[in-house]
Design a protein that fits this description.
Blueprint (H helix, E strand, L loop, with lengths): L1 H14 L4 H10 L10 H44 L3 E5 L5 E4 L5 E4 L4 E5 L6 E6 L1 E5 L7 E5 L2 E5 L3 E6 L3 E8 L1 E6 L2 E6 L2 E6 L4 E6 L7 H4 L1 E8 H12 L2 E4 L8 E7 L3 H12 L2 E5 L2 E5 L4
Parallel strand pairs: 5-7, 16-19
Antiparallel strand pairs: 1-4, 2-3, 3-6, 4-5, 6-9, 7-8, 8-11, 9-10, 10-13, 11-12, 13-14, 15-17, 18-19
């Protein structure tokens, strides 16, 4: 075919003019010339490969962009995990636990009690609590809030003992000012007072603290200064987790002045028997008190 094309071009320039119909006529006249064989499958595969190459180049950019987006998302997620304060949960079983809160405030958990708070405080110093604990709160403009069920205890800087049960929440303030907060209504409690919040009727009763041994469970020290025997009994019941039964009511009016420093229940009983001329006997977990007394 190339030779025939040369002939056509020679004739074209020789004649001085040419048009498309002449070229078609020329092709018909040279039908004995064979066109080169074409591998259709190979040509198609080559074309498809070029198309895929172009697509893959464009898809590569899409894949890179998607990968960068995912990487940024994962990085943000990991950063959030790294900067989110962890929850601290502390629970006591048969022993007392000393706790330092993130702001430097102190707490002592009594047995079978628990604290829950963030590793780092935010705008509020928030602690969830159940059981019994003594708090010594560092003074700050940020309120220290103790959540115990529906009731919140709100303080700025103070020391107090807090006890929760199914029936009530008992607060005894040693220093400073403490507020009971229930549904936005606050009841303020001053040092030397005891407040008892009843869960049954949402009421708060405030009385003068009848005992100086509220936190005796911490250091094991019991002090009585001309204290009536019925008050002594209440403190002993709380401290040793026992109950007393008085056979002679007149004994309750007897006055006691004594200090017990980490003494056992038996040692305390023997001392009181000697001081008052009474007898104490334990029966099925109850201390029976008998005699004439003072």
């Amino acid at each position: 075919m190339p030779k025939e094309l040369e002939r056509y071009n020679h004739l074209r320039y020789e004649n001085g003019a040419s048009n498309g119909s002449e070229f078609i006529d020329f092709l018909y006249e040279n039908t004995d010339s064979k066109a080169p064989e074409v591998d259709v499958d190979a040509a198609w595969n080559s074309l498809q490969g070029k198309i895929n190459t172009r697509k893959s180049g464009s898809n590569s950019w899409l894949r890179i962009a998607a990968s960068v987006t995912i990487l940024i998302g994962v990085s943000i997620f990991i950063w959030n995990l790294a900067t989110t304060p962890d929850q601290v949960n502390i629970a006591s079983a048969d022993e007392k636990i000393n706790v330092t809160f993130p702001d430097g405030s102190k707490g002592v958990l009594n047995t079978n009690s628990s604290f829950s708070f963030l590793e780092k405080f935010g705008n509020e110093r928030l602690v969830s609590f159940q059981g019994e604990a003594y708090f010594d709160i560092k003074k700050s403009e940020k309120p220290f809030i103790i959540e115990t069920g529906d009731v919140k205890v709100r303080v700025l800087g103070t020391a107090f003992n807090l006890t929760t049960s199914k029936e009530n929440v008992e607060l005894i303030v040693e220093r400073g000012l403490v507020a009971f907060d229930k549904d936005g209504e606050q009841t303020k409690v001053k040092a030397g007072l005891k407040a008892v919040f009843s869960k049954a009727d949402d009421s708060v009763v405030i009385v003068e603290n009848p005992s100086s041994n509220v936190a005796s469970w911490i250091d094991g020290k019991l002090e009585f200064n001309d204290t009536s025997f019925d008050t002594v009994i209440r403190d002993l019941e709380s401290h040793f987790e026992v109950s007393f039964e008085i056979s002679n009511e007149s004994i309750n009016s007897c006055k006691i002045t004594a200090t017990f420093n980490r003494s056992s229940l038996l040692e305390v009983m023997e001392t009181l028997e000697s001081m008052l001329g009474i007898e104490m006997e334990e029966k099925e977990g109850v201390i029976i008190v008998s005699g004439q007394g003072c």
